[in-house]
Structure formats: structure tokens, C-alpha cells
Amino acid sequence: MALCHLPLPRWSAQCRLRSMTATKGPLAPPTCADNSPPCPDVSLNPPILSRPQDHTLAYLPSEPLSLSLPRTHSLHSATRLGSTRLAARSSMASPGAQQLKQLKPLYQHVVNNFVAVLAAPVAVAAAITAARVGPDELLARLHALRAAHVFLAVFVPAAAATLYLMLRPRSVYLVDYACFRTKPNCRVPFSTFLEHAKLVTFVEGASIDERSVRFMTRLLERSGLGEETCLPPAHHYIPPYRNMEASRAEVELVIFSAIDDLLAKTGISPAAIDILVVNCSLFAPIPSFTDMIIHRYGMRRDVRNVHLSGMGCSAGLISVGLARNLLQVAPRGAHALVVSTETITPNYYVGKERAMLLPNCLFRMGGAALLLSTSRAKARFRLARVVRTLTGAQDSAYRCVFQEEDGEGHRGINLSKDLMTIAGDALKANITAIGPLVLPASEQLLFAMSFIARRVFGGGKFKPYLPDFRTAFEHFCIHAGGRAVIDELQRSLGLSDQDVEASRMALHRFGNTSSSSVWYELAYIEAKGRMRRGDRVWMIGFGSGFKCNSAAWECIAPPRNAEGPWEDSICRYPVDIPEVLKH
Amino acid sequence: MVYEQGEEVLPGAVHGHRLSTVVPSSVTGEVDYPLSDADLAFKLHYLRGVYYYPPGDVTRGITTKVIKDPMFPWLDDYFPVAGRVRRDAADVAAGEGGHPPRPYIKCNDCGVRIVEAKCDRDMAEWLRDEAPGRLSQLCYDKVLGPELFFSPLLYVQITNFKCGGLALGFSWAHLIGDVASAATCFNKWAQILSGKKPEPTVLTPENMPGHSPAGATAPRSVKQVGPIEDHWIVPAGRDMACYSFHVTEPTLKKLQQQAAVATGTFELVAALMWQTVAKIRGGVETVTVVKNDAAARSGRALANEMKVGYVEASGSSPAKADVAELAALLAKGVVDETAAVAAFPGDVLVYGGAHLTLVDMEQVDVYGLEIKGQRPVHVEYGMDGVGEEGAVLVQPDADGRGRTVTAVLPRDEIGSLRAALQDA
């Protein structure tokens, strides 16, 4: 995965300049009016970490993440924004460490291919012995064996193999996915959002006051969102409409266009869909979304449909897990349609509580539709793992993202101050669960040795080893919950700027689209041409509850064409997102 | 919807206002649009233009979505219209002079405001009534300020009549362009709606702020007011209303015959109005004349390039003078003060400030705003922010042969005007 080390000028948010011939300011950034193919894989950041194996230079967090027991430790409050800080270990300079660094690849090859490493000498020894003994002698020994033994020696392994093949879970494949393509007539620039917030007045008399508007301004400036994010048409009104008709209109706009795109991409007919899972947290009309889809597309009478509501921003991965489970008991080659979305229309908060104003600023319109199947034909990804962790048993985690009415009776979602801490703990729990399943043996061994060493020799002498997940995955899709969330995860997992680039850019272009954001990030990676056969992707979602869910995918085929939500804008990305946006 | 609650809806009034916003479809970036001195001279005035479309199948198909969708690419071309006024913090001269810093337009894509409303009357009835003040019902009557930074420069009101007729009311801040620029701007929107690709919008050369000499007295055509802070309207002492009426072709022919030499239609109609107002009011020795000279325009899409001047009726009082005489004066005797008005540093009222203002809109193509091939059945342009002296706008009418005249006068003078016109 080579990076192009091109010296590129740094420029702030690229945009298409108008036909003002006397342009202001310095050199204008290039436009993509010529429909040139997506730019090669370039990074605006200096090439810090160029190869995934080179993780000895990996960023080490200043407060190490312990993967042993879930121990409460406070992570930094996530106000540190901007690019990654590299903190090299002070012992890095010593020659001992240099030698260790060089030996590490060798160590990895040995441990990861342990069986082969053991088997090879044994096989060679056996061959030499056989050669020395001679073929006649071998045959004579073979005849001496009893028939029963021979039969068992053949039958038992064959039976075991057959049983294993029959009882193992079926592999589930992602045939394709499609994200809702935002329309420019839903675009909400910063200034418009703020102006609307100022002008909204409700009959109840509770207007959003000056302080709240200033707070929202500061939030938006530092949020990492760009000027192209979209809100549903109902929210372009002053005051915004939040009724059922407008909500249904948004739902239909988002999911029907995503499903239409998906059906066009996969060529499948709606009648061939056996399972339908939809997740949308904040809007649960009767009849449900699944019924809307069945009605619109004329699906069969025996479709197994489930609508998941109230499951938060990680519900997309929960739906994938559920669809996988349903596919295990469906007929072979069944197809499951999974739709992830969030309906913004009914959820505009009109009160003054600061903790509840944040969702207004961050949540934007978006949705994704995916087609899963147990048949490998035309599949693009294989679902390797779905790991779900819930921390809701603890009070603080349970109340961390809480929908309630404020003092004046306005309903909104209250985000508690220790959201980052709880997210960090949930992430730890999830990593602890997924680590043994995906990390190569070399990393697990190192982690185990570090764990034992800490136990035996006391915690002070050895820092806990942070496994490098870049040995397990090539791409990371971290739910674009907000700039702070992405920064925090980057720090905790020791990822480079390029690893989280998809998340940051999806946040900039689309905002926080809740459960579908991981799909926009995957679409970014593919639009940039970085996805290759065999690449592994890790999707991490966070949500109310507090839940942290992961899915691991392996790529079978890269995308066939450049269609997708990033079609028009990919040539402008990546952008340098300033710390405070000027508006 | 909320604006209706608690409000008593008078029968026949326009009600049910729903506000929304339309923004440019792509990001403009950090662009500032400087305002020229000519622009700032007109900042206290607001154009109010209404286009009426008759009921029918075509009009029924013109939904809000049909109206809004072309506005997104339209604002890509006219992005300064979607911006907001800001003050130049780096304006050193202002600090020294003690007045607020120079305004400019920050092109931040904030957007234009769309208002949707309903009227329970038939459009034909509404037009027949010729009620004064009907213009303010069909155009959202907001101005720039008191929150200057959050005031849209353009409001578009879509009013649906009971019979199915449609009225489009544009409230345009004169600051950003004169009536010719405004009409061209709206016509471009209609072209995008019809699927035609309009000509590219030229916004260069950029407005360069001039260096105005300080301490000069205001030119005679205009009246100095202020200083204006952030609420860009000078409340006239009296209640002003817009009254539109039609000058028929026979009347024009009669006027033309009375004139000894061939005179332009604007001069004749304006002279008639001058005389009528002089009769009602007495006095009115001098009038301000604002003309639109298409040949002299620079070709910039948004510009204030009307010619401002004044005419003095020498000798006899205009009430007693001949219309033909006044018309001749208007044709030849205008003292041009355009540059002086622009250069004057203080805040001025151009329309209705110093004298009755006569506005020539002959060459403005208002009837070109065709929606899906449907021409407007009537168009009238009025103005807000007009001073007490009043203004008269002479515009083309539907068939091009007569003229539509909108008089912006104090409400109590309108009755007398109607009576006087009936006699004439």
C-alpha cells in the first residue's frame, strides 16, 4: 500500500470557485470539471507511517490503554484536535531496540506460520527417513498393519472433516452496498444553520436564546463538519416541520433511493429478497419501515422482516449481525436486505439545554442499503466477524446517551459529560473481545507475554503492550460520531492519520449520519481506489446503551465502477480540516 | 404556520406564511463581494416586484418544488445574492471618521428566503380591485436590519390564490443591484427552470470602493439622512403605500399628440404624474429623475448603474404647466448627478428623499419572466424605503403598448391621486 510522496500545497477547504475571473487570494486549487478519475492515493500529511508493518514507530498513547481487565481510567477529555502527535519512546534510540525492530518481521513470520514452521522440518525428516528405509521396506510395513487400524485411520478423519463442514456456520457475504446520495437541494451551509437556529420561535415561547446560539456556533466551528452536509427538506423551514408526514417523506427519500441504487448495482429483483432488516433509532412509525419497503417494492409474502428501533448509532452493525443469524437458518443462497438510516426530521431539539443541542449540530441526513447472502456468487466482501459489546449494566454507561425531556418539556437527546470516558471503556471491552479473534498469533503472543510480565514483575516496569491492529486490518471505518470521537479512537488504537482519513472526511462531507456513517467511510476508501482483493476492513460503531459493536470484513472484489455518494466530491478530498472553521 | 396562531385572519388577506431557505448548490468558499459607492448610495431602498400568473393547467403545475429546484443552481451563479452584509473590520477610515465600518457582502451561502402564502380571493378580483398597498401583501416586507448580519438580501414570496392563480413577489435589497439587474437576475432563474442554459453571469470587474471627499453637502437630487447604524430603513413620517394603475394606449396617444415634438413615453407619463402630484400637493418645483440607460451599462450582472439627476421647473408652477412642456424638460433639462450621489460619503435617500422621484423602467424586461412558457399576466414594481416626497415608477405593461405606473405616495394622497386620474 504505497503512498505517493508528492509535495502538495496545503490549502483550506477546497471548493469550486465561481466564474469570477479576478479571483481573490493565492493560487486556486484545481477543480474537477474535467471529470478526471479520482486522485491517486495521496496524503496531505507528511508521510509518517508508510507501511503497515512498520509499527515499531507506531504512536504510543501517553496514557496506555490497558487491555486486561476493564479498569476505570480516565481518558483525556477529548478536546485535543488536529493531527496525530507522534510520541516516540525514549528508548527508541538505543541500539538494542533497533535490533529488536529489525527482528520483529522475522518474529512475526515465524509465529504466524507456526504450524508450517514446525511441519516443514518434520516433513523433511520423514522424507529422509523414508528414503533411507527404502520403498520395499515401506510397503512391507504397510502390509503388516491390521485392516481395522487402516480403516479407522481413514474413516475417523474423514468423518470428522465431514461433520465439521456440515456444522460450521455458513459464511455470509456482502454482495454490494449503496449509500444514499445527497442532493444539493438539501445542503445546509453553516451560516444557514445558525441563522435558522436564531430565527426559530415556537408558540410555547421557548426560543433558542443567544447563549445557545453562541454555543452552537462554537460547536459547529470545531465539529469537523463541512459546508456540504445535508438536512431533510422539512428542516429547511423556519420553524422546521417535525410531523409524521414530513418524517415519512424523509424516510422515503433516503431509503428508497438507496435501495434503488442497490438493486441497480446488484441486478437482483425485490422478489428474491428473503430477509429484510431495517434499523432507525429515533422514528418508529406504524406500519414500520420494513412494511414501507415491502409495500413499495412488492416483496414476497414470506419475507422475514424486522425493524430495529432505539438501538443507537451502532445499530447498523447490529442489523448486520441479525441478518447473518437469520441467514444461517434460511435456505441456502438466501438474500438479506439490510437498511441502516436515521430520520432527522422529528428530532429537532428546540430547547436551551446545551447537552441536548449537540445532536442538532452534528446529525445529518444519510442512509445505506446492503445486500447480504450466503452465496458467494457476485459477492464483494466476506463477513468475518461481528462482535457486540454492551456496557449498559453500569449506570453511567446506561445514562450516557439518554433521550428525555428537558426542564421546559422539549424532547431531546442528552449527552453526558463523560461520554468520551465511557466510549473508551466500551471500546476497550470490544477490543478485548475481538482481539483474540482477528489478531495474528504474533501480536497475541506479544500481548500475552507483556501481560504475564506485568503480572510477574509488577506493573511499573513494563508498559502494557498495545496490539497493532494494522496487522489485522488494512482499513478502518470508525463511526464518524464527531471529531472528538475520531481523535480519541485514533489515539487509543494507535492509528495513523491515513487510517482515520475515511472517518474524518465522511464526517466533513456528510456529517454524523448515525448508523450509516461506516458505509459512507467504506465508500470513501473504495472511491479513492484503495480497496484491493484480500484487504480486511474493521468497522466500529458506538451508540447509546452504551454499545460498541465491530464488524470485520474481507474484500473479495473491488468495486466495478465509480458510482456512489462520493462520485461528485471525491476529487476534492482529502481536505485539511481547520481547527476552527471560519464562517 | 406559527405566525398564524393568535392572528386573526381577515377575509381576503394573505395568510399562512411558511418560511424556508434556498442556498447555492455548491460551496462558494471564502469570497467577499465588495460594494461600490453607487451600491451603498441605494442601501436604504428595497424593490418590491410582483409577477402575476393566471390560473390554468400550466400554473397548477407550478408547485413550490418546481419553483425552488432551479434556485439552487441559479444561486451558484448569483452567489452574492445568497450572502449577508458584514462590516469590514479593517476599515481604518471609518475608525477615524467615527462612522461604522464600510459594509460588504460576505458570500457565505446563507441563502435567500422563500415565503409560501395563500390568499382566499380570486386573482382576477384582486387585480380588479386596484387596492393600494396590495404590493406589500404579496412581497415579504422585511428590510436589512436590525440584525444586519442575518438579514437576507432577497425574499421570494409564492402566493397561491383560490382560483389557482399564482403571484411571485420579490423583495430585493437595492443595495445589491438596480431594477434592471434584478429583473435580469429573475429572468435567469426562469430560464434555468425552463431547462435553458442561461448566459454566464459576469461579476467582474470587481467593485472598487472609491475615495469619497469628506464633508461635501448632499447633491440636490437626494436627501441626506442618518447616520444609519444597522437598521437600514428610514421610517417615513407618513404611512407610504404603493398604488399601481394602468395608463392605456389611447391616453398615451393623446399625450403624444399634445406634444409638439416626438417625446419618449416615459417623459410623457412622468410629466403627467408630475403635474397630477403638483396639483394635489402644491409645489413640487423640482423632481429627481432616475433613468436606466441600457447602452451605458457595464455588463456586470449585479450593479447599480441607474442615472440619477434632477429637473427644475423654471418659471411656472408644474400644476399649471402643460404636460408637453414638462415632458420636454424631463427629456432635455436633467442635471446629471450620478457620480456626485455615489461619491457622497453620508447616508442618503435617493427615492422620495429630496423631491418626488420619477423612475424610468422602460427598458427593463419584466415580462420576460416566463415560467414553463407561461408569461405573467401583469407585473408591477414598487419600492420600500421611499421618502415622504414619494416616487413614481413607469414600467412596461403586458402588451407593451400601454404603461403600468406604480406611485409610492403617502396613503392619504392616494385617494386624491385616484380621483385626479379618473378625471384625466
Automatic annotation (TrEMBL), chain A:
Pfam families, sorted: ACP_syn_III_C, FAE1_CUT1_RppA
Transmembrane intervals: 110-128, 148-167, 306-327
Keyword Acyltransferase: yes
Top-level class of the enzyme under EC nomenclature: transferase
Domain (Beta-ketoacyl-[acyl-carrier-protein] synthase III C-terminal): residue spans on this chain: 474-554
Pathway(s) served: Lipid metabolism; fatty acid biosynthesis
GO MF terms, alphabetically ordered: acyltransferase activity, transferring groups other than amino-acyl groups
EC number(s) reported in the record: 2.3.1.-
GO biological process, one term: fatty acid biosynthetic process
Keywords of this entry: Acyltransferase, Membrane, Transferase, Transmembrane, Transmembrane helix
InterPro entries associated with the record: 3-ktacl-CoA_syn, ACP_syn_III_C, FAE1_typ3_polyketide_synth, Thiolase-like
Entry's Gene Ontology cellular component terms: membrane
Domain FAE: 164-455
Source taxon at top rank: Eukaryota
Keyword Magnesium: no
PANTHER family according to UniProt: 3-KETOACYL-COA SYNTHASE
Stated family: Belongs to the thiolase-like superfamily. Chalcone/stilbene synthases family.
The protein's name in its UniProt record: 3-ketoacyl-CoA synthase
Species this protein is from: Digitaria exilis
TrEMBL record, chain B:
Gene3D superfamilies: Chloramphenicol acetyltransferase-like domain
Protein's name in the database: Protein ECERIFERUM 26-like
Similarity comment text for this entry: Belongs to the plant acyltransferase family.
Keyword terms of this UniProt record: Acyltransferase, Transferase
This protein's record includes keyword Acyltransferase: yes
Single GO molecular function: acyltransferase activity, transferring groups other than amino-acyl groups
Domain of life: Eukaryota
PANTHER family with a match to the protein in the record: PROTEIN ECERIFERUM 26-LIKE, TRICHOTHECENE 3-O-ACETYLTRANSFERASE
